[in-house]
Amino acid sequence: MPSSGWDQDGIAGRDEALFAIDLHGALTFQDKIKLLAELVVVALSGTADGDGGLGEALVLHGSVRAVEKAADGAAVLGGEGFLLGKRVDGHAGTVVGLQEVMANGFSFHKVRAVITGASSGLGAEFARQLAPQADLLVLVARRAEALEEVRRGLPRGAGQVECVVADLGTEAGRQGLLAEIEARGLRPNLLINNAGLGDYGPLVSAPVEKLQLMLEVNVAALTLITRRMLPNLEAGSGILNVSSLASTLPMPELAVYAATKAYVTSFSEALAIELMPRDITVTCVCPGPTPTNFSRTAKREDGTDTNRDGQALLRISPHQVVAEALAGLAAGRACVFPGKGVKVAARLFRLMPRALLRLILRRRTGQGSM
């Protein structure tokens, strides 16, 4: 008969849970799920007698994250077969770490990265933190001078650095980027989709051209560049998409931006599952307010700004955002909320009834202009 165990503190007590399944028998999860509401393991074809196949398994996380720290102590014990592309041999006493099953993680040793939006902010910080381990950095942005400044500021010991000027808000710019990568004979194994922009203010007065550009950069560019690079990504490659804490909220007077980031988060999590058999790790990072050029470009010409009440509790440095994002990619996490305040806020927003959330946002919006 199957048996399972967990520590009594569980995820809520220590953000870590021990969860083991002995698959030598029929699987019944109903009693176990109650104590592991945030971590559900569903085994398909999941009976094993030591000789039969373990079958495939689907691992879901209650807060729409791929296991994260909750899986640090988790393990799956099984019969002989395959679990999400990983061979499990119960006869040999194999123990497969659940996080390893979900994603292999990305190795930054001699990384070859393409970074969009690399001329400032998080993009430039990604370049700085990757440089010491990189064989190749491809820095992509619209402003050639800004890219060269980032290149000059990289620490010594950085490998080959290529600057590609491209306007990712246009199809010609997106195709031009891929053409340049091919023409220069570059073989990246990491794509960081960082380019993005926002817009503060109500939809009714939003400049149509700015909305169109936001959709092109935040959604179309991220999706189409990923699609076009995928055939050339080898096993062990990675994709890191920059989303936002706003992706968890219906944000009045930041509506289009929040919606584009909700797309990025959903797209990333789906792609993480889809590319798992190819051993390609996909992670999205969802930072809160971060001191970059974002706010300056999101403001409208009439000075329309956002309500910044409470943002101080969520704000962390670009260095910390990038460090936690890269650590999440290395660990194979599907979604990273950097900073303690952002982690708490994200969980609260996702657990809160939507009607209550809308009421709070309506009152907040009514306190002043955004």
What features would you describe in this structure?
Strand 13 (238-242), helix 8 (255-274) and strand 14 (281-285) form a beta-alpha-beta unit. The chain has a seven-stranded parallel β-sheet, sandwiched between helices. Strands 1-2 form a two-stranded antiparallel ribbon. The longest helix has 22 residues, at 208-229. The chain contains twelve helices and 15 strands. By secondary structure, it is of the alpha/beta class. Mean pLDDT is 74; it is low at 1-103. It is globular, with a radius of gyration of 22 Å. 36% of the residues lie in helices and 17% in strands. Helix 4 (121-130) crosses helix 10, helix 6 runs parallel beside helix 7 and helix 7 runs parallel beside helix 8 (255-274). The protein folds into two domains: 4-102, no CATH class; 111-366, 3-Layer(aba) Sandwich (Rossmann fold).
Number of helices: 12
Q: Estimate percent helicity.
A: 25-40%
With strands numbered from the N-terminus, the spatial order across the biggest sheet is: 11-10-9-12-13-14-15
Number of strands: 15
**What is the average of the pLDDT values?**
74
Radius of gyration over alpha carbons?
Answer: 22 Å
Q: What separation lies between the terminal Cα atoms? A: 59 Å
List keywords for this structure.
about 375 residues, alpha/beta, Rossmann fold, 7-stranded parallel β-sheet, two-stranded antiparallel ribbon, 12 helices, 15 strands, about 35% helix, globular, disordered N terminus
